[in-house]
UniProtKB/TrEMBL annotation:
This protein's pathway: Cofactor biosynthesis; (R)-pantothenate biosynthesis; (R)-pantoate from 3-methyl-2-oxobutanoate: step 2/2
Lineage: Bacteria, Pseudomonadati, Pseudomonadota, Alphaproteobacteria, Hyphomicrobiales
Protein name, as recorded: 2-dehydropantoate 2-reductase
Top-level lineage group: Bacteria
Matching Gene3D superfamilies: N-(1-d-carboxylethyl)-l-norvaline Dehydrogenase, domain 2, NAD(P)-binding Rossmann-like Domain
Coiled-coil intervals, chain numbering: none
Function text: Catalyzes the NADPH-dependent reduction of ketopantoate into pantoic acid.
GO MF, one annotated term: 2-dehydropantoate 2-reductase activity
InterPro entries: 6-PGluconate_DH-like_C_sf, 6PGD_dom2, ApbA, Ketopantoate_reductase, KPA_reductase, KPR_N, NAD(P)-bd_dom_sf
Species assigned in the record: Phreatobacter oligotrophus
Length: 342
């Protein structure tokens, strides 16, 4: 057990769910969030976790960033990727000299965190469970899924094992890995597909099950895996996503089976749409597209791998964010056209 409370910086869908489970299990946890009404709800009437996995309400100590005092051994970062740098600037003075930040986010945030606080004060994490923030003190926990922890240098230390045990309180099948980058790149490939599902209002499962869209999911998976392989990453699969079938030269039957498995996996969640869709359709705000997906094109260019489908997808998401294109199949069709012609 850490000597100081664990801070969870960003107490929305992911951070809030984790915090409620940890607090219920007796861990010393403090949530930090910039939404003052949410902070007030969590520390007074409690954080209500709803949905098919489990329903309970848990009071959790919570602060706004301005209220945080002192230093902490463990800070779990769970803001959207585009908020990472600003959150790091706020939390850095509160991180103990021998403490660390754990990224419970999508994308390669560990690179940004390591630049800000140092490689040794950064721990990697991959989360694939589904949750939605519904309002102050209200989170839908839609489905259980993979949770993985590992050091960014591949070592396994006492602190990594201790964090793995904490994560197992939340997800009994949590994995301790020496290849966290393999999981993070796998999620980047799946994440690119999730961005494509957000081009329409159809559910994730409906998207993956539509044969007209298979060409897009196949191409996105292959582009990300080609970049990963060229960068020496050995990607790892999870929850229906099989990286090997998207590897350069792999036959189409394998990727079709993995896309069907993703349709099946997502048929069983109360979180029917991705967080990206929720940002666009419900929250009406910008998505994580640049730090999460745009970065793949940049990393691909560095190793000579072209990523035309990724580039088109980024453009289409920007067009929706800017109100220039609808969330509709006509927008998805533009990506199909790019994949068919390149
Ligand atoms: N939701 C899901 O099912 C999954 C999400 N992820 C990933 O997890 C990460 C977190 O996503 P999610 O939990 O859904 O996001 P949410 O928007 O639900 O939660 C993030 C919270 O952090 C707050 N916040 C933003 N900046 C700061 C700051 N500087 N200091 C304190 N609080 C801040 C946000 O406030 P505000 O709303 O005002 O910005 C919000 O309340 C993302 O990278 C996402 O892609 C991964 C797997 C599944
Ligand atoms: C769909 C999900 C929950 C992964 O399973 C996700 O990562 C997201 O909503 O962005």
């Amino acid at each position: 057990m850490a000597a100081s409370p664990i801070l969870i910086w960003g107490a929305g869908a992911i951070g809030g769910t984790l915090g409620a489970y940890w607090k219920r299990a007796g861990l010393d946890v403090v949530l930090v969030d910039q939404v003052a009404e949410h902070v007030e709800a969590c520390r007074t009437r409690g954080l209500a976790i709803t949905g098919p996995v489990e329903e309970f309400t848990q009071v959790v100590p919570a602060l706004t960033p301005a209220e945080v005092r002192g230093t902490f051994d463990i800070i779990v970062l769970a803001v959207k990727a585009q908020a990472t740098e600003a959150a790091l600037a706020q939390l850095k003075p509160h991180l103990a000299a021998d403490g660390y930040v754990l990224s419970a986010q999508n994308g390669l945030n560990e690179l940004t965190i390591a630049r800000a606080v140092g490689e040794d004060r950064t721990m990697g994490c991959f989360v694939n469970f589904g949750a939605d923030w519904h309002g102050p003190g209200e989170i839908l926990f839609g489905n259980r899924a993979a949770v993985v922890v590992g050091e960014i240098d591949g070592s396994i230390r006492e602190r990594t094992r201790a964090m793995h045990q904490r994560l197992a309180i939340f997800e009994p099948n949590a994995v301790l890995t020496d290849n966290i980058w393999g999981y993070l790149w796998g999620k980047l490939a799946y994440g690119a597909m999730l961005f494509a599902t957000a081009l329409t209002n159809d559910s994730m499962s409906e998207n993956f099950a539509d044969p007209r869209r298979t060409i897009v999911f196949d191409r996105l998976g292959r582009e990300v895996m080609a970049v990963a392989k060229a960068r020496g990453v050995v990607p790892i699969g999870f929850n229906g996503f099989d990286p090997e079938v998207f590897a350069p030269g792999a036959p189409p039957e394998g990727s079709a089976a993995s896309i069907a498995a993703l349709a099946e996996f997502n048929r069983h969640t109360a979180k029917t749409h991705s967080g990206i869709w929720r940002d666009l359709a419900v929250r009406k705000r910008k998505t994580e597209v640049d730090p999460q997906i745009g970065v793949i094109a940049t990393l691909g260019a560095e190793v000579g791998v072209a990523t035309p489908a990724i580039a088109k997808l980024v453009d289409l998401i920007h067009a929706i964010e800017d109100g220039e294109k609808p969330m509709a199949f006509s927008t998805f069709q533009k990506l199909i056209d790019t994949c068919a012609s390149t």
